[in-house]
């Protein structure tokens, strides 16, 4: 009998019920991505991911595809293959999101994911008309608490969704603090554009409580509120097929095991590869589940360890005592 304690370790294949997805914003100004380091984040808390990772919930029909082309170098009179090389690196990932939310809609829709702000006028617009004025953020606010003056605090109720960001004052480039929600090539002038940044910001959350001086939030904002920002009530989310902006996010997909090891698929940069689409999964008739279908294309990054071009990282964490 072998004295090796691992000699008869089961070679059980990893088994899981479904895949969990997480997203983090890419800095569109600098191109900086949010890194998933398997050496330090192997203990990634699936139920409480570290900032700025956002839990997208469970996904179904998860499928990864490599479209990178492989070519062969042939030499000699018989055209023998002497080497291989890759051209046009490309990778895609597709899945169906079971949960609808702000970021989920952005990944599915691909273009601007707009906040429909509560209105004070009767000038209807497909993406929302003239909104009620913003409430100025007061000092001392945190990721989960927005301090307001008493008169402004009275405008909000528990259960409201709020958007928190700066005014638009003619700036160009990417709009939205920390996470870009739109791109403006030429300045837009006029009071009707004051709330443009809050229309596209991802700095949104739901109010879970109201104190004498602040709104308490059910989930943390992705950007710390400052006194240069304003707050407005959000009544819905809307996106538009055919507009020019491309979303870009880092994504992490986790195959959490019921047995065996766990797998992590980390894409530093993903952009949409198709427009908005939904899928349906039948329950007992006439009920069905309306799911968001997402198709994303990976953009390249450079690994500083060896300057290699990378589209995706696949990490595997073996189960305890499993043969390696």
Quick summary of this structure?
By secondary structure, the chain is mainly beta.
The helix/strand series, from N terminus to C terminus, equals EEEEEHEEEHEEEHEEEEEEEEEE
Q: Whole-number average pLDDT?
A: 89
Estimated radius of gyration = 24 Å
β-strand percent reads 35-45%
Most strands sheet: 7 strands, antiparallel
Instruction: Assign the CATH architecture of the largest domain.
Output: Roll
Briefly note the CATH topology name of the largest domain: Pnp Oxidase, Chain A
**Strands, total number:** 21
Helix content: under 10%
Judged by helices, strands and strand pairing, the structural class is mainly beta
Molecular structure report:
By secondary structure, the chain is mostly beta strands. The chain has 2 domains: 19-75 and 84-110 and 246-317, Pnp Oxidase, Chain A; 114-239, no CATH class. Helix content is 5%, strand content 41%. It is built from 3 helices and 21 strands. Strands 6, 7, 8, 9, 12, 13 and 14 form a 7-stranded antiparallel beta sheet that branches. Strands 1-2-5-18-16-15 form a 6-stranded antiparallel barrel. Strand 17 and strand 18 form a beta hairpin. The longest helix is centred in the first third of the chain and has 8 residues, at 102-109. The protein is globular. The mean pLDDT is 89.
